[in-house]
Amino acid sequence: MTVETQLNPTQPVNQQIYRILRRDIVHCLIAPGTPLSEKEVSVRFNVSRQPVREAFIKLAENGLIQIRPQRGSYVNKISMAQVRNGSFIRQAIECAVARRAASMITESQCYQLEQNLHQQRIAIEHKQLDDFLNLMTTSINS
Q1: Interior CA angle at 42 toward 39 and 45, to 5°?
Q2: Is 34 helix (H, G, I), strand (E, B) or coil?
Q3: Which of 45, 49, 109, 123 would bridge 128 by S-S if both were Cys, CB 3.0 to 4.6 A apart?
């Protein structure tokens, strides 16, 4: 695991722990199959187990970990079948959304999208995965 342990006191603890663990899993800093302990994570962040438990539940809901009652929590292994399935579904959805958006987009929104794509390219070139993922989920209306 990474050594990041500083939490912002103005933000919900469970959400911060979720984001940090998610990043560590996505970057393979926590390898697939690795056991995750609520106790160890709560010690790492100097918090009670409740926000850790909430973060684990959200990670499980997003398919990043598996919680096995009485046996522990583990980082999910990567399934190539799921990757292919997800890519197929995502491509179909994104094509449909793009067609719909193209018929409704304003000039200003089009410019914002172009800027976002440019920033995504820069993030990828500089291997800034966090920035790239954030840009991918940024709304042009935000």
Answers
A1: 150
A2: coil
A3: 123
pLDDT digits (tens, 9 = 90+) for 16-35: 999 999 999 988 899 999 99
How does strand 72-75 pair with strand 65-68?
antiparallel
Take residue 21 and report the two structure tokens written for it: 């663990």
- In the block, tokens 């399934």 appear at 79
Residue 3 has φ and ψ, to the nearest 5°, of -95, 5
**C-alpha separations of 105 from 70, 94, 111, 115, 138 in Å:** 51, 15, 10, 15, 16
Q: Which residues lie closer than 8 Å to 30 by C-beta, 6 or more apart?
A: 1, 21, 24, 36, 75
Query: Is there a contact between 16 and 8 (Cβ–Cβ < 8 Å)?
Result: yes
Token reading at 104: 């409704």
Mean pLDDT, the chain, as a whole number?
90
pLDDT computed for residue 2 by the predictor: 47
Place of tokens 């993030």: 123
Extended strands (E) in 1-52: 35-36
Write out the two tokens for 103: 């018929």
